[in-house]
Amino acid sequence: MSSIGIRLQEVKARLASACIAAGRGVDSVTLLAVSKTQGPDAVREAAAAGQRAFGENYVQEALDKMAALRDLPLQWHLIGPLQSNKTRVVAEAFDWVHSVDRLKIAQRLADQRPAHLPPLQLCLQVNVSGEHSKSGVAPAEVPALAAAVAALPASRVHLRGLMAIPAPADTVAVQRLPHRALRELATALAEQGLHLDTLSMGMSDDLEAAVLEGSTMVRVGTAIFGRREA
Ligand SMILES: *Cc1c(COP(=O)(O)O)cnc(C)c1O
Q1: 222 lines ligand 1 (CB under 6 A)
Q2: What keywords would UniProt list here (predicted)?
Q3: What's the number of domains the chain is made of?
């Protein structure tokens, strides 16, 4: 097996252990392989080892990779910031966007999603760590934004959940806090009648904490593909 294939198995084993420790089913968390800065060959290796869902941060880089890998049945998730001048190509090429943080972006994606494709799956990126990150909607603004995005045409976009990139922390106990905050936001939405099925949280260094707090999709780059070049 390739080194990427071996690391992929290691991450899956970590994920399974985390699910067991959390008292959850081992299939309750989807693994998104974050392939930003990796070339098409690395993605091909991961795909050969059974990986289907890939996360990308940079739109043009992702489009180039999709073109090079058109022969493979892959699912593409945009997890990086999205500017409004890029929404059309994103609506045409991606399956998911995790980084919606304002209504205008979601409206443009809904307007521009081609009718022959399934609805684009959306998550709202929430700034759960305050000053650490400038991207993401403030927690207090999530209920209004979620209601507005959920009201967009269902044939074009489908609001699936919430996403966060918490500040790094050294212990699982501290790592759990922002993940818990994201889960509690989703619980509050459910109490208002908006039921979302996705919590996109957990990366190479904190996936165990995220799974303990209810993550349904972890986004893992370094632990699968190795350190990225600066
Ligand atoms: C890069 C990135 C990841 C993966 O981070 P690793 O620490 O390499 O696992 C996950 N989510 C987002 C939004 C990222 O930008």
Answers
A1: yes
A2: Pyridoxal phosphate
A3: 1
Residue for token digits 């090079």? 68
pTM attached to this predicted model? 0.97
The pLDDT tens digits of the residues spanning 128-158 come to: 987 666 789 999 999 999 999 999 999 999 9
Q: Does ligand 1 have an atom closer than 6 angstroms to the CB of 221?
A: yes
User: Considering only CA atoms, which residue is closest to atom 11 of ligand 1?
Assistant: 219
pLDDT digits (tens, 9 = 90+) for 81-136: 999 999 999 999 999 999 999 999 999 999 999 999 999 999 999 999 876 667 89
Residue with CA at minimum distance from ligand 1 atom 12: 79
Residue 50 within a domain: yes
The Å distance, Cα 165 to ligand 1 centre, comes to 8
Q: Which domain holds residue 43?
A: 3-225
* CATH code for the domain in which residue 9 is found: 3.20.20.10
> DSSP labels for 4-39?
HHHHHHHHHHHHHHHHHHTT--TTSSEEEEE-TT--
In a domain, 230, yes or no: no
